Amino acid sequence: GAGVSQSPSNKVTEKGKDVELRCDPISGHTALYWYRQSLGQGLEFLIYFQGNSAPDKSGLPSDRFSAERTGGSVSTLTIQRTQQEDSAVYLCASSFPGGMNTEAFFGQGTRLTVV
Amino acid sequence: AQSVTQPDIHITVSEGASLELRCNYSYGATPYLFWYVQSPGQGLQLLLKYFSGDTLVQGIKGFEAEFKRSQSSFNLRKPSVHWSDAAEYFCAVLRNSGNTPLVFGKGTRLSVIA
Q1: Mean of all residue pLDDT scores within chain A
Q2: Which of B32, B72, B83, B99 has the smallest C-beta neighbourhood within 10 Å, fewest atoms?
Q3: Which domains are delineated in chain A?
């Protein structure tokens, strides 16, 4: 597509439920990043994919968070047993790997509210 | 570990005044450097980037930034601020080798008053 697409744009869930957030990157972008932006905070790195593999999972805050990417394209971020502190905007970005093409393009984000 | 520091959490300027937002990075070599803007309810938009060459880079919306290796800084500037520039500004760095993610500063919120 023309840009990075994230769905849903808004999600309200009850504490303890599982949620899945979807990211559809720009066609041809092999690198994909997930970030979390909490109210008044900066962008917290969660996980990075190069193709279907995740060389850097260091930012995942707990084992309740997981992510996968299939076909080198769409990625899903799953949060199990959601907690109120998981409420945030989850941003996805994609880019070409390395060199001069490392500009990342961001989606509009998914605003997650855990009640 | 590489890090990005934006010392100013919130800055208020008058419309028409000049602006400088500070950014310092911590990394042994020169990384790729970026400034992004996030307007209320909007996604992140790239303002400008520095990879190599001329240390003064021009971006969109009249913004520019200067890379100073000796100070490990990449400050964002604009000669005359418009009310529509009110937004959150993020500095980010990327190591120029290997597969690494963008590392962002915590952002500077810009308010513009009449």
Answers
A1: 90
A2: B83
A3: 5-114 (2.60.40.10)
